[in-house]
Amino acid sequence: MQIRHKETGEFILEVSGPSLAGRRVRGARLHHAALRGEDMTGADLRGADLCIADLSGATLCGANLTGADLSGATLTGAKLDGAVLLDAKLLGVNLANATLRRADLTRATLRFAEASGADFSDAVMPRADLSYGVFRGANFTGAQLDEASLNFANLAGAKLRYASLVCAVLIQADLSDADLDQADFMHAALNGTDLRGANLGGALFRHAVLGGCWNLDRARGVAEARYLELGSLDVRTLRASLGSLSDESLVALGIVKETIASLRSAVGLGGPDPRSAA
Q1: Full 3-state SS string of 155-223
Q2: Which domain holds residue 42?
């Protein structure tokens, strides 16, 4: 098999056999490689340079990409189920509609990634950096995202059911219309996060910090969220929510019921629970 430069057609690497499946090409220089649709199942690509390579539609299931650099690579529709991407660099990578089910992305860098519609279900991603990435409609069901950085990430409409985000940081993240049912945000920091239309029903927020969050009053299932023993709920978020959330929802957020009327009065929203008036 001959591997060529995707733009110039220049010869890059030659390996025996019809594909890279199961082959050991550790540390190979494959930047700008044309690998569209190639079978690379179980390949050993540890430390390989795959920057700006075309891997769209490629099959890398079970491949070992530990420490590999795939920055700027195109992996649209690629299959990476069960792949190992420990400490891999995926800066600005295009993973739209790719599948990474059960993949190991521990400490992987996906800053500025485009991964709309990608499937990360049951992926292992502790301390991964997803900052500034676009993950609209992506599936993170059951994913492990403990201590992950999701600052400025777009997760609108994403599925995070049963995902673990313990100690994760979500500064200015977009969680609008995301499904957070049963997700664990214990000790997580959500600062300036947009929660419009997000489903919080069954989510765990024990000791989490919510600061300057947008549209908490427009989130769904606030009263049904479990263990909303927030470590901190800032005044701005509370003020924006007092007029719309029911007493039940505010109690779920940790507000003492007897103080709700006084709080509404203090911010010019005097009167009973706006949702109880008939």
Answers
A1: CCCCECCCCECCCCEEECCECCCCECCCCECCCCEEECCECCCCECCCCECCCCEEECCECHHHCECCC
A2: 1-129
State the total domains in the chain. 2
- Residue-level pLDDT at 35: 97
**65: amino acid identity, one letter:** L
For residue 39, CA distances in Å to 20, 31, 58, 68 come to 6, 17, 6, 18
Q: Tens digits of per-residue pLDDT, 204-248?
A: 888 888 888 888 888 888 766 554 555 555 556 666 666 666 677
> The CATH number of the domain where 95 resides is what?
2.160.20.80
pTM of the entire structure?
A: 0.84
Q: Answer yes or no: do 4 and 125 share one domain.
A: yes
Task: Compute and round to an integer the Cα radius of gyration of the chain.
Answer: 22
Task: Classify each residue of 172-201 as buried b or exposed e, where b means 16 or more C-beta atoms within 10 Å of its C-beta.
Answer: bbbbbbbbbbbbbbbbbbbbbbbbbebbbb
